[in-house]
Fold each of these.
Amino acid sequence: MAQSYDASAIRVLEGLDAVRMRPGMYIGTTGSRGLHHLLWEIVDNGIDECMGGFATEVQVTLHKDGSASVWDNGRGVPVDMHPELGISGVEVIYTRLHAGGKFGNENYAYSGGLHGVGASVVNALSRWMTVDSFRDWTHWAIRFESNYDETEGKVMAGKAVTPLERLGNTRKRGTLVRFLPDDRIFEDTVFNHDVVRSRLRELAYLNPNVRITLTDERVSDSAGRTEEFCYAGGIADYVRWLNREKTPLTDEIIVFSGQKDDIRFSAAVQYTDSYSVSVFSFANNISTGEGGTHEAGFRSAWTRIFNDYARRIGALKEKDNNLSGEDFREGLTAVISVMVKNPQFEGQTKGRLGNTEVRPAVESIVMNEMTLYLEDLKNQDLGQKIVEKALKSAKVREAAQKAKDLARKKSALEAAPLVGKLSACTGRKAAENELFIVEGDSAGGSAKQGRDRRFQAILPLRGKPLNVEKKRIDQVLANEEFRSIITALGTGIDEDFTLDSLKYHKVIILADADQDGAHIRAILLTFFYRYMRELVTEGHVFIGMPPLYAVKRASGIQYAYDDRELKKLTKGLKGGYTVQRYKGLGEMNPEQLWETTMDPKNRKLMQVTIEDAVREDSLITTLMGDKVEPRREYITEHAEFNKADRFEGTLEDSYRMTWGSGEK
Ligand code: 28G
C-alpha cells in the first residue's frame, strides 16, 4: 500500500516560465508530437492512479473548442495547504516545475509519464487549464491561465486565476483535468483522433482491466463518438489483435511474467507463418521503438532456451551448431513490457531503454518462466513446431548467407550489379551525400544530367522491385533492384546492418505521382522498414516531391506542389497563363527536375519517420500483406488522402499518399 501523503511531501523546484521559454527541453518538439505529449502526460497520471490500485477507469474527451479533458475515478488530487508555500497541493502540482513525486518517490515507483516532466508543464503550455478534484465528498475546482501581462511584458505561464474553490458536496471520487493547448506555442493545436485512439488502446492493452474511453466530440456522428478500450487479457490480447491479419502457427499465445529485484517483466508471444519479426517493447508503458536492454535480454534468453530445448528433444545433435536468434524469431509477434525504477530513455527519439540492470533480470525471468513452460507436457507440440520452423528458417538463411557473401564479394570488386547503373557522386562525405533512387530509366537519365554531381548520386530502378512483404530474405537478395540498393548504400541488411557504413545520409525516393510510382514507393519503404529499420528510425529516408503543376506565363514558370498552391498561384491572374499537370518525372527536362525536385534550395522532401511502431507495422501488413479485405477497408476509409497533409512526414502519411489514389 502507498504511504500516506499530504501536500508537504511535494518537492518544489522552480517556476513555470522556464517551460514557455524553452518548450523543446520539456516536451521535445512544438509540433504534433509535442502537442500529443501534453495529453499523454495527463493521461499517464490517470493511469498511474489505476496502477496504484486507486482507480479503475480513465476517460479522455476531445472537445469541440480544441481542449482535451481527462477524468479518472481515483482519489482526487490533494487539496490541503502546503505548509511552507501557503498554497494548496493542487496549485503546487500544477504550477511548480517538478512538483509531484515522480522523482524518488516510492508511491510512484514505476511511473511512466512524459518521462516524468509533470502536469505543470502541460499547464505552462496551455491557454488555460482547469482541475476538479472530487475528494472526501467535496468537489474542489481551480482554473489556471497563461495571459499576457502588460507590466511584465510577457505571457505569465499557468497562473491560478481563481483560488481553489469548494463547489459543493459530491458522491464522486476522482480527478478531472481539462486544458487548451496554447496556439502561441504549438504550430498546430488539433489533436489527431487516430493518434490518440491508438495510444489509448495501447495503454488499455498494457494495463489489463483498466477501462479507457475516448470521446471525440468533434466528430459529427454521435453514435461513433465514444469508444471504449478494456482488455482482461492484457498483452496476450494485444498479440492476438496484432496478428489479426496474419495466419498464426498455433492458436495459443505464450504469456508469462516475473519479477526480479525491482524489475517486473511480462511477455506475450505468438508465431505466425510470416517471415518478418514483430517485437513491440515497452518500458513503464512507454513504447521503446528503438529497443534497449529489455529487448536484448528477451532475445538472448529466447535463443538460448530454444537451442537447449532443440537439443533436449533431439532436433539438434551434438555435432550441430546452435541455431541463430533470427531463426527462432522468424514469424514471431511479441509484446514485451517491463516496469523499471528510474527508467533511462536514450537514442534519437528517446525510444531506447538504457538501464543495464534490466538485461540480466529479463534474461533470468525469461529463462525461468520458459523452462517451466517447455517442461509442461501439454506444451510439447508448440515447442516442437517452433523448433521445426526455426530449422527451416536456418536452411533458408544459409542459402541467403551465400547470396549475401557473393554480393559482398562483388561489391568489393567494384559492384557487379551496379555497373552502368549507379552514377556515384564525387564528394566523399557521407553526411553530405544524397542517393536518389529514381523510378525509370528516362527519369533516371534526367536526374543524372540535372544533379549536382558533387554530392548527389543517382540510382535508376528498372521495373518494379519485388514486394518484400511476401518474400523471404533469400528471395529479396536474389532481386537485382534490391541488390543494387544494398550495394549502393554500403550498410548490409538485416542483422548485418551497420548504420556507420552508410554512404549517403539522405536516401531519397523519387517516383511518379501515379499508381505505379505509389506502389514502388510503398515497396521501397517496406523494404527499408523490414530490412534496414534504423535507416528509417534515424531519419535517413526521404520522399522527393516533384511538383504537380507548372504555371507558365510570359514572365517565366512557377511550380505548384499541390492543389492549394496551384490556387494560390493562379488567384488574381487574369488569363495569359497556362497550367501544365505533370504526369511523370519523365516530362521534366534535366534543368526543371533539378530546379523543382533536386535543388536543396527549392525542393520539398518528406522525411519518413516512425511515430508509432505498432501502427506502422500493422499498416504495412494491411497494405502489403496477402489479405485483400482489410486493405480494401483501409483504402476506402482513407480515400481522401492527399494534398493537405502531403508534407506531414510520418511513414503512414507516405503510405497514405502512396495508396490514396485508390487501388481496387
Ligand atoms: C484526470 C487526469 C489525470 C491524479 C491523483 C491522486 C493523488 C495525487 C493525483 O497526488 C501528489 C506527489 C507524489 C504522492 C495521492 C491523492 C495521494 C493521496 C493522491 C490525475 C502524491 C499528487 N491522495 N490522481 N495526484 N503526489 N489523477 N488524472 O491526474 O507523492 S493526479
Amino acid sequence: MSKIIVIGAAGQIGTELVLALRKLNGEHRVVAADLKDSCPPLLAGGAYVKMDILDRDFVREYIIKNEIKEVYLLAALLSATAEKNPDFAWKLNMEGLFTVLDLAKEGYISKIFWPSSIAVFGPTTPMDNTPQHTIMEPSTVYGISKQAGERWCEYYFNKFNVDVRSIRYPGLISYKSLPGGGTTDYAVDIFYKAKAGEKFTCFLKEDTALPMMFMDDAINATIQLMEAPAENIKIRSAYNLGGISFTPKTISKAIQKEIPSFEIDYQPDFRQAIADSWPNSIDDTNAKKEWGWNHKFDLEAMVKVMLENVKVELLETK
Ligand code: NAD
Ligand code: SER
C-alpha cells in the first residue's frame, strides 16, 4: 500500500490532518514530518521524521526511498510571522513547493495537497462574498507567496499533468493544537482567555469581519477534495472555501452567551492592516458544485465545541 506524508505535521492543521488521515488509511501508512525535533504527543502512534522542507536532497531521498505517493505540504510562515521576515517567508513558502511539484513531475509522487489562503486576495478585491475568479492584488508577503504558489500549481498541472489540489483556507479555529502566527489567530486566542476567566485584548478592531472555519470542516474539505475523482477538479490553482464570517465583536457576544462575565477590549496592531486587505466573506459555489463541499459548523456550534474542549494548559507547550 502506498504511503502518505504530511510535511509541517506538528502545526495547527497538520496535527489534525495526520490524525484524520491515519484514521482513514491506518497509522502505518501516514508519516508525520516536521522541522521539530520530536513529534507532538497526539501523533505518537505513527511514524515521525524530522525533516526540513528546505533540505531538498533529504526530502527527495526520503520520499523516493520510502515510496511515498501522496504529499500534504503544510510547512509555511503564516501572514503575521511572514511580515516580520519577508525574505525567509518567500524562500520557505516557495522552495518547498517546487521540491514537491518537481518530484511529482518526475513521476515519484502521484498526488499533492498544498494549501492556499484567503490572503491571495487584496484591498482591490470585492470584499463581500468574494468570487472564485476576481481581482487579486495581495499586499502581504504571505499573500504574494500563496498567489504565486497557486499559479505554479496550475502551471505544473497544465504543462506536466501534476495532480495538485488546493484550497484557499479561511482562518481556522481549533483546540487540539495552537495556531502558528496568523492574522486570524485572535479567534483561537480568545477562547483560551475566556476559558481561563480572563479579559481578552484583541489585536483587531471590533468590526473587522473575516472568513473563518472550524477545523473539523477544514479537514473534511481537504479529505473530500483529495478523494474526489481527478476529472471533478476543474480548478487547479485553489478553491474558494466558505464557512462562517464574523467580527471580534460578534464572536465575543457568542462567547458571552456561554460565559456572561467574559470581557473583551481592543488594541489593534500591525495585523489590522492585513485583516483590512482580506475579504469579509467567501463565495464557494465552485467547491460545492464540483466536489460536493458544504460546511457543518456555524458560529454557535463552533463556540460551544471550543469552550468545551480548549485546554488552557496547552499554552504552556508554546
Ligand atoms: P502552523 O504554523 O501551525 O504549522 C506549520 C508547521 O510547519 C509547524 O509545525 C512548523 O514547525 C513546520 N515547519 C516550519 N518550517 C518548516 C520546515 N522548513 N520544514 C518542515 N516543517 C516546517 O501552520 P498551519 O496553520 O498548520 O498552516 C499550514 C498551512 O496551511 C500553511 O501553508 C498555511 O499557509 C495554510 N493556511 C493555514 C490557515 C490557518 O488558519 N491555520 C489558513 C490558511 C492557510
Ligand atoms: N489564518 C491565516 C493567517 O491569518 C490565513 O491564511 O495567516
